[in-house]
TrEMBL record:
Membrane topology: Multi-pass membrane protein
Domain Connexin cysteine-rich: 134-201
Family the entry assigns: Belongs to the connexin family.
Presence of keyword Transmembrane helix: yes
Keyword Cell membrane part of the UniProt annotation: yes
GO cellular component: connexin complex
Top-rank lineage group of the source organism: Eukaryota
Chief location bin: other
UniProt name for this protein: Gap junction protein
Origin species: Apaloderma vittatum
Coiled-coil regions listed in the entry: none
Subcellular location as annotated: Cell junction, Gap junction; Cell membrane
Annotated keywords: Cell junction, Cell membrane, Gap junction, Membrane, Transmembrane, Transmembrane helix
Amino acid sequence: MSWGFLRHLLSGVNKYSTGIGRIWVAVVFIFRLLVYVVAAENIWKYEHDEFECNIQQPGCENVCFDHFFPVSHIRLWALQLIVVSTPSLLVVFHVAYRENREKRHNQKLYKSPREIDGGLLCTYLISLILKTGFEIVFLVLFYKLYNGFKVPHLVKCDVRPCPNTVDCYISKPTEKMIFLYFLVATSCLCVVLNLSELSYLIFK
C-alpha cells in the first residue's frame, strides 16, 4: 500500500490545526509513520517463517502461531495508523465545504477558511474525540490480543493438532518488544496531545 495519501492528508490538516495539533501531526508522521515504514515493517516481515516449535507434527506450528498471534502486530499497527488519521478527513471536508459555499455565493461568508470557529470548531472537536477514542480502543485491543504489552521468548502451546504441550520460540523477541513499547508510548503521547488540544479549545 502507498502511505503517500496519509502523508498528504496529515499535511493538509496541519494548515487548520492549533499548535498542539501540529505537534500531533509531527508525532504521527515522524515517530509513527516513518518508524513503521523504515524499521518496524522489516522486523515483523518474516515472523511466521521464523516462528519455530520443537515438534514436526503437521499443522501444529501453524495453529500455535495463530493462537498466539491472531493478528500480526505490524498489520494491527498499520490499521491503527489509518483509523486514527481518518477523523482528520472531517476537518478537510468541512473546510472544502466552506470554500465551495463561498464560491457558490460569490462572496466571503467566513472570516477565514483556516480559522477554527463555529461549525468548524464542532467538527474539529468531534475529530479530536474520535481520534482519542480510536487510540484507546487500539491500546486495549493490543493488550487483550497479546496478553499484555510484551513479546515472550518462549510460549507453550497445547492446541490441537499438537499431541502434547510443545515449546515454541519467537524470533527477535527483544527487538520486537522494544518496538512494541515504542508503539504504546507514541499512542499514549498522541492521546495526551489530543486531550490537551481538546481542553485548550474548550476553555478558549
